[in-house]
Write a structure and sequence with these properties.
This protein is of the alpha/beta class. The protein has a single domain (5-240), classed as Nucleoside phosphorylase domain (Rossmann fold, 3-Layer(aba) Sandwich), CATH 3.40.50. Helix content is 26%, strand content 26%. It is built from five helices and eleven strands, in the order ββββαβββαββαβαβα. It has helices at residues 67-76, 134-147, 168-177, 189-195, 220-240; strands at 5-9, 19-25, 38-43, 46-52, 81-90, 98-100, 103-106, 152-153, 156-159, 181-183, 199-209. Strands 1, 2, 3, 4, 5, 6, 7, 8, 9, 10 and 11 form an eleven-stranded mixed β-sheet that branches. Strand 9 (156-159), helix 3 (168-177) and strand 10 form a beta-alpha-beta unit. Helix 2 packs across helix 5. It is globular, with a radius of gyration of 17 Å. It starts with a strand and ends with a helix.
């Protein structure tokens, strides 16, 4: 099989218009059902696999996503590289910023965080100093440069539980901790990918100022407007990738 990249689409990218879908496959995993059938096809002529994180109808909230099944399904069909696309709030970065983060802090709880289960296999302690695949991060940054689209290189993603947005005090805490972005799906996705030896990287679009950081109230309508203005830039970067 030729090198195949998987795209996990988040809010605002539950489908990929430029993708020529050749087939869909329901994958059975030991961890239950993935968010949706895997879509196999071509993007600018190159083979990819696409999976909408929140389901095809965007009905699965962040804390209910079956991250283990999603990553296992992609791994089981031979995917080696995964680009995770997600809309985020900006703590130090303004709306409409595209970012390829290099660090992550996990504030989530109650999620299935690992494939390591008691008594099933030897315990695996994955090395997670640098949570994202540096080679894939570099490819994303190079693709953005080729496309002529500004992208922030680096930054820390703070993964919160959701589905509610954060309080201003919580964002102040995240900022003191060094977070530049805040989202709800970054973990355990990144850690599970590392356990499966997948090359994994994030491409984040800032759709709003995080709580207490902007002058205007946070509204879903304003987020949707930013998404509509910026989603072509995301697709353009993916095309060059």
């Amino acid at each position: 099989m030729k090198e195949r990249i998987a795209l996990i689409g988040g809010t605002g990218l539950s489908r990929l218009d430029a993708m020529e879908v050749e087939r869909r496959q329901v994958v059975v995993t030991p961890y239950g059902e993935p968010s949706a059938p895997l879509a196999f096809g071509r993007f600018d002529g190159l083979p990819i696999v696409f999976l909408p994180r929140h389901g095809e109808a965007h009905t699965i909230p962040p804390h209910k996503v079956n991250y283990r099944a999603n990553l296992w399904a992609l791994h089981s069909v031979g995917v080696q590289q995964v680009v995770s696309i997600a809309s985020v709030g900006g703590i130090t970065q303004p709306p409409e910023t595209l970012c390829v983060p290099d660090q992550i802090i996990d504030y989530t709880w109650g999620r299935e965080q690992t494939y390591v289960e008691c008594g099933q296999r030897p315990i695996k302690h994955v090395e997670f100093t640098h949570p994202y695949c540096q080679a894939l991060r570099r490819r994303l940054l190079d693709a953005a440069e080729q496309a002529g689209i500004p992208v922030v290189d680096g930054g820390t993603y703070g993964a919160t539980q959701g589905p509610r947005l954060e309080t201003a005090a919580e964002i102040q805490r995240l900022e003191r901790d060094g977070c530049d972005l805040v989202g709800m799906t970054g973990m355990p996705e990144a850690a599970l990918a590392r356990e499966l030896d997948l090359c994994f990287a994030h491409l984040n679009l800032v759709v709003n100022w995080a709580a207490g950081k902007g002058d205007e109230p946070i509204t879903l309508e304003a987020m949707a407007e930013v998404l509509s203005r910026s989603i072509d830039s995301v697709r353009n970067i993916l095309s060059h990738l």
